[in-house]
Amino acid sequence: MSEATTGSQALSLAAELERLREERDELQHLLAEAHKMASLGRLSAGIVHEINTPIGSIFSNNEVLSRTAEKVRALVLAAAESNQPPPAKALALLDTMMSLFAVDKMACERISSVIRSLKTFARVNDSDIREIDLNELLLNTIKLTSCTYRRRVSVETDLGELPKVECYPGLLSQVFLNLIVNASQAIPNEGRILVSTRQESEHVHVSVTDTGTGIRPQDRHKIFAAGFTTKPIGEGTGLGLNITREIVVDTHGGTIDFESEVGVGTTFHVHLPVRQPRREGSL
Amino acid sequence: METNGQANASVLIVDDEDMVTTSIRAFLQLETEYDVYGFNDPVQAVRHLETNPVDVIVSDYLMPKLNGIQFLSKAKEYQPEAARVLLTGHADKQSAIQAINEVGLFQYLEKPWDNSQLLLVIQAAIERTVLLRTLRDKISALDVAHSNLKDVQSKLLRAFL
Description:
Strand content of chain A: 15-25%
Helix content of chain B: 55-70%
Order of helices and strands of chain A: HHEHEEHEEHEE
Number of helices of chain A: 5
Oligomer: heterodimer
Shape of chain A: elongated
Helix content of chain A: 55-70%
Number of helices of chain B: 5
Order of helices and strands of chain B: EHEHEHEHEH
Structural class of chain A: alpha+beta
Shape of chain B: elongated
Largest sheet of chain A: 5 strands, mixed
Number of strands of chain A: 7
Strand content of chain B: 5-15%
Distance between the termini of chain A: 44 Å
Distance between the termini of chain B: 65 Å
Low-confidence stretches of chain B: none
Mean pLDDT of chain A: 87
Radius of gyration of chain B: 20 Å
Radius of gyration of chain A: 27 Å
Structural class of chain B: alpha/beta
Strand order of the largest sheet of chain A: 2-4-5-7-6
Number of strands of chain B: 5
């Protein structure tokens, strides 16, 4: 075999390797996207409830306000015809109307905040690295998960000042969705989750602490492995933490680790570099 | 809207969302003469039911401390005759089936609710409660009459034997 042939074979193999790497990256993105959609699907009942409640109030209030306005109008007109001041009944009805307007405003704000947080997860084509406000991404994730869990799990935040972080936002939203959903599911009845962020030189440190059951010592070395789950069938795919690790470590060059005590709770620590290495076509 | 002479009826609404209890209370107070009690905490609502009879109980499903089914079960213990209605935005038919089977639900309504439908359900529920109470009173009157009759019968027997 000539040197030229060997050289050309090596080039062709290198090209094939590169193609396979790209294919693998693409598949990883698709898997993460599919997993994110599955997670959102599982949260959808809570999201529907969160939106249906204020919509119910707005519908009801609209009808009541319209009928109340008719009554007030009739009372005021009758009083005017007999040169009397508006009766107390009309003023009481106006007070009711004012309280319903306030409820409607609150209801609209509620719907709007859920939609805003959903938009964080709805970026379909998010394959480029962008600079994002990581605290905002975390707050949106907490908002979405709280639709399902807030009646038994309270989430506290301790968000430090952070620089803009270069990342794949769609993938990173999956990371924190997984960690916060896992933390909520680890709490059997009522409990707390603390999400905190800090800048540590060229990295940001995000920690998610729950007051859940903790991870059993014999499970600790397996939790990032694909297919490992302690959740009932239908609730966990066993891919969440595996995908989370890949996104943090392989895709963003960060680290993820945890500390856990059975019966006390678990804290996951995610360290992400503020800047990503320059790549062709990014930023 | 007509409320068919149900002026003295009382309705208890439980939802952890203040916006829901405020909206429904405003609607019922505008359209009816019912006494309307709204609670955002199911535990406080249970306390109210311990001592205050109501005709209809309308409850949300997803609430902290007690969910709708747990709350309605407790409500049933204190006031078995009061009609129980679940008003939920939780898109889960399983909870509806569970509620119907476990707490003898009168009606299952979904959010966003329709005021006219809600009022019709409440009116029908009040009617049912009133009928049940009338039935209970008639049964106890019958029991009293029956026991009086037995007394008379035994006195008669004693008199003749």
